[in-house]
Amino acid sequence: MSFDENQFHDIADAFLDSLFEQLDEQIGDHADVDVEDGILNIELDAGGTYIINKHAPNKQIWMASPKSGATHYEYKEGDWIGTRDDADLVKRLCEELNVTLS
Questions:
Q1: Can you tell me the distance from the alpha carbon of 71 to that of 88, in angstroms, rounded to the nearest whole number?
Q2: CA atoms of 24 and 48, how far apart (whole Å)
Q3: What distance in Å separates the CA atoms of residue 3 and residue 99, rounded to the nearest whole number?
Q4: E strands along 15-101, which residues?
Q5: Phi first, then psi: what are they for 43, rounded to 5°?
Q6: pTM of the predicted structure, to 2 decimals
């Protein structure tokens, strides 16, 4: 999908806000979950930190994970899909955190 920078920010911000709300509700007792200025931080009480952020120049979402490393995602047909492996960001995050998100 091709969109301008403003559309990218609208879509990415809504995605990150939704992730924050769902994760805070599900794992908030076991992690410090925070979103600010387009950066979602998930600091697990058991150790490990996820950083999920917007990368406006490439119109991508980037994720740094203690399990899968650094990955980049592009918006395709309503989902954020990995640029290298076609993995869905939400599915990958759910598997790694052992949660179910909508």
A1: 11
A2: 16
A3: 31
A4: 31-36, 39-44, 49-55, 60-65, 69-76, 79-82
A5: -105, 110
A6: 0.92
Q: How far, rounded to the nearest angstrom, does the alpha carbon of residue 101 sit from its chain's CA centroid?
A: 12
Q: Which two tokens stand for residue 80?
A: 């954020």
Angle, CA of 36, 96 and 11, to the nearest 5°: 40
Model confidence pLDDT, tens digit, residues 64-90:
999 999 999 999 999 999 999 999 999
In terms of C-beta density within 10 A (0-12 exposed, 13-18 middle, 19 or more buried), how is residue 35 classed?
Answer: buried
pLDDT per residue as tens digits for the range 24-63:
999 989 999 999 999 999 999 999 999 999 999 999 999 9
What's the token pair of residue 10?
Answer: 């609208």
Residue bearing tokens 């806000």: 17
Distance CA 21, CA 60 (A): 21
